[in-house]
Specification:
single chain; 206 residues; alpha+beta; Alpha-D-Glucose-1,6-Bisphosphate, Chain A, domain 4; eight-stranded antiparallel beta sheet; 8 strands; 42% helix; globular; START-like_dom_sf; ASHA1/2-like_C; SRPBCC family protein
């Protein structure tokens, strides 16, 4: 299966209100216990996502290297993890919930990210700003569960398949945006901006 196939098998949904909620659902060919461990064991997280530190227990805190941190709000192995997801000096409300359930000899993985998004950022990027990032993260998780190599996000967009995967993800979030009531012109502009952010065109030497 190609990276693009992997991206396209996910179901995406946007709940557009005062707070924005993006939902990603997909299936992994691994049992819930294995997926849970991959998402919560620090050694395994480093192998497919980012190093994590902190007081990793219910009520404790975590920090992903160079990325989000927060409080562990709920932890019910191997089916439910909920954390605050805070990044930057004034992040506002942001929570991520992951639910795992056994399905079809594997695991149904559902990620819900609810956040207060500055209007100017939402107007420019729409749900793709966070959605494409989660797509790439879950692509990395899938590769890890299948015994593959870690995706290097810093250079992923420089490969033909990486760029095509990012474009496919950005367009898929555009469809979710339109389904939630986004105007076609607004959605098209957000998809273009998101694609340019995650997969900028290489500059041609003068």
């Amino acid at each position: 299966m190609t990276f693009i196939d992997d991206i396209q098998q996910a179901h995406r949904e946007l709940l557009d209100g005062t707070r924005k909620t993006v939902v990603l659902r997909r299936h992994y060919d691994a049992d819930p216990e294995d997926v849970w461990q991959a998402c919560t064991d620090p050694d395994r997280l480093t192998r497919w996502f980012l190093p994590v530190s902190g007081d990793l227990r219910l009520g404790g805190t975590y920090q992903l290297e160079g990325n989000a941190g927060g409080e562990i709000l709920r932890c019910e192995p191997p089916s439910l993890l909920k954390v605050t997801w805070l990044f930057g000096p004034d992040p506002g409300f942001s929570e991520v919930e992951v639910r795992l359930s056994a399905k079809d000899d594997g695991t149904l993985f559902e990620l819900t990210h609810t956040a207060e998004v500055p209007p100017e950022m939402w107007g420019q990027f729409g749900p793709g700003a966070v959605g494409v990032g989660w797509d790439l993260t879950l692509l990395g998780l899938g590769l890890h569960l299948a015994g593959g190599e870690k995706v290097e996000e810093a250079t992923f967009h420089l490969t033909a398949e990486g760029r095509a995967s990012i474009i496919a993800s950005s367009q898929a979030w555009g469809r979710a945006h339109e389904s939630a009531g986004g105007r076609p012109d607004e959605v098209a502009a957000a998809v273009a901006a998101t694609t340019a952010f995650y997969a900028p065109e290489e500059e041609t030497p003068a």
